[in-house]
Write a structure and sequence with these properties.
488 residues; alpha+beta; 2 domains; two-stranded antiparallel sheet
Amino acid sequence: MPFVFDTTYARLPERFFARVQPTRVARPEVLAVNAALADLLHLTVDELTSPEGAEILAGNRLPPGADSIALAYAGHQFGGFVPQLGDGRAILLGEIVGRNGRRVDVQLKGPGRTPFSRGGDGRAALGPVLREYLVSEAMAALGVPTTRSLAAVATGERVYRETPLPGAVLTRVASSHIRVGTFQFFAARRDVEAVQTLTTYALDRHYPNAPRDKGPALTLLNCVIGAQAKLVAHWLSIGFVHGVMNTDNTSIAGETIDYGPCAFLDTYDSKRVFSSIDHGGRYAFSNQPRIAMWNLARLAETLLPIMHDDETKAVEMATELLETYPSRFEAEYATIMRKKLGFTQDREGDLAIAKGFLELLEESRVDFTTAFRRLADVADGAAPSHLGDLFRAPDSFLNWAAKWRSRLADEPVSSAERAATMRRVSPAFIPRNHRVEEMIAAAVEGDLKPFERLCNVLGKPYEDQPDAIDLTLPPGDEQWRYVTFCGT
Ligand code: AMP
Ligand code: MG
């Protein structure tokens, strides 16, 4: 099996990880392979679905050249610091430089216990594996930075959560698995040398072109602030709720990582929470930009000792940089929201128009995705009632639409061009929660057709697909109280 590994993380000091072998499973069966991603990694579907491929993807056999490790990290979980987390149910096989020249981690998620497993079994259940596969690939197709999914295999074994469930292993591909929590792991141990090493490593790997004249720590912090601002703005523009934005789930590369109780908004509700244990709304939809800032402040703290010998000076420098985040976030957010509204030029007041629209959606509990898609139709000549009918008080929408139209009046593009631009940032298809749940229920019964259909349709989220209209529809009222549980 020609995995062409070129692994660098496993050559870092021993305290960065634990060398570990996956634990054998009974009957590996390949459920899904991502052909395009396989090709990018110099692999083929035939290789990955062969008996040998199945053994490798299940962790029963290591491919030649693999140097399998579980990474050490710490993290703030719902605001409380845990000094040691680490890959308790994930094993990194190695890194591959893809056809596009980009280096990625190839990791098995759910391959058995590691020294970081604490009380856990190191395993994953089929449902969460297929959810992560589907949603991460949908995010990639939506153009959002994300970890990817190369394969899902059933293990032929049960895992025990509240009830026995079929087990599975996901092969996750990421720009890296370095998290804010990785820095915290070493900072909590006052291991300044390791923080230094990790900073240089992360810069070389993720931000090699960033000018480093202000020193590695400020350079890295600046790059991560930029990447997170962009990422969270993107999430907000498509109604995505990560659900567990703990610092251990915050990627230094700026990718969406660790799909647990994540979900997309149907009805627009800025306070929407999906994690069953998030009682305070810490990770609610519209709180995500603020939480990203909080997580970045935790990263900054770990970097203080290598920023400046004088701690007061270091705190000043870090604070000054962190304070750039809100305006950088807002600039990213404004850029995407302008496109969603069909504006090509930057005008003051654009965000107020966006906010006005969102307030109307919230008031009338309108489906977020449908509303923006229909707004593109209206920009394209559809009758305003095509969208206005979704509101409790269609007049309030018509008032807003009048402002929107007058803002559009001096834009130099044709309505067809405008609508096309709008449709490139406002998807027709998102992984709707009720469809994802349906898909999982079918898969547990051995029927993968809904999974395959969703994967196909969500691979082209911005295209109208007339034979998949059912997948554009929000759930009926009885289904809308959707909660994902943390027992992933
Ligand atoms: P997560 O909620 O997936 O971000 O995981 C938080 C921490 O718990 C990480 O250190 C995981 O490795 C660990 N963890 C989660 N589930 C398991 C499991 N089934 N077995 C061992 N460790 C786990
Ligand atoms: Mg995690």
